[in-house]
Design a protein that fits this description.
single chain, 2 strands, two-stranded antiparallel ribbon, 258 residues, disordered C terminus, mainly alpha
Amino acid sequence: MPTFTSTDTNPAVVGQNTDNGIGVLGTSVQNDAVHGNTSSSNAAGVSGFNTKTDAPAGPGVLGVSVMGVGVHGHSSSSAGIVGDSDAFDGVEGTTRSNIAAGVAGHNDTGNGVLGDSKTGRGVFGNSESGDAVFGNSTSGRGVVGLSNSQAGVVGDSQTFDGVFGRSHNPAAAGVSGHNPGGLAGFFEGNVTVTGLLNGVAIGSLVQQLSSLQQQVSSLQQQVNSLTTRVANDEETIAVLQQAIQTIIGAPNAAGIPV
C-alpha cells in the first residue's frame, strides 16, 4: 500500500477536480471509506470547507446514509457534535415524519435536551396550529417551571384562558395552588364558579347570601327608624325639661318658696 508523507505544512495528498466531479473518492466494503486521524489539539481528524461566499452555498461536510445515521459524532469527555454559527442556528434539525422529531435528545438519567441563555429564552417552541411545547411523563410531572424571583409558570392568551388545567381524577383538582404561609390563590377580576365550592352548591349559596342581604337591609331600616324615634324622644324630653324649669322658676320669681 503506497504511503504519502509530507514533512512541512503542505498536504501529503491532494485531490483536485476542475469540472463537476469529486476531488477525492474513498470506497470500502467493510470499513471506513475515508478515515482521518490527528494528534493535534486544535485540528480535526476530518474537516470539510465550502468557500462559496454568496447564497445559496453547499454544506462544509455532508453525511448521507440510506438506513443508518447520516452523521455520527462521539466523544468520551466532550460534546459528541457541536454546531456553531455567527448569524444562524448553531444546530438545525429537519424531518418529514409526523411521528419523529426535528431534533431529539436522549438521556437515561439527566436532561434529554438542555437550552441555556443569559438574557433570552432558554428553550423556545413555536407551532402554527399544534402545541408549541409539550411535556409528557409516566410518573413524574409533565412540565415544571422554577424561578427565584418571578413566576414559575406564566400563561397568556389573546382569545382563550391564560392557564388551563384538567384532571381526570375525581379526587384531584384541575388547577391547585399551595402556600403554607400565604395565599394559595389570588384572583384579580371577576370569578365564575359552576358546581360546588368546597361541597356547597354555588346557586344555593348565592340565594342564601341574597336572603341575608335582604335581612340586613330590613334590620338597617329598623335601626334607622329607632334612631329617629330616639332623636324625637330626646327633643321632647328637652322641651318638657324646659317647661318644668319654667314652671318651677315662676313661683321663685314671685317670692313664693317652692
